[in-house]
Amino acid sequence: MSRSPAHDDHPPCDRDGRFGPPVAVKDLVARRPAAVRGRLEGVRTLAGAHGPTFEAELSDTSGSVQLRFVGRRSVPGLVPGVALEARGTPRAHRGRTEILNPLYELLAPPSDAEPIRSARNPRSDP
Question: Which DSSP symbol is given to 94?
Fold first, then answer.
């Protein structure tokens, strides 16, 4: 079966499984693996009949995408304000774009985060 030219213009990922350079949220295409960067605007945990789901809203200057972690009540490091890169396959769900169980990399802490203090001497300045 041959592929359409439009499909070949945007390969899903390279041979090593990487998703290529990040794209803007507005440029995400359903069922086409991609990487996207932004800041988390909010997080929440939902209880469901099949278990919990942790949701985080990732925004860039072009829009936002919902990151959903099925079966999780929380994900370490994912707090409002943190900058991250998420990689996965977007889909349309209930009028929104979402990525289920994305791979992610934290890029920067929240801008209003408190300085990290040494565990040995919690009163010392960083």
Answer: T
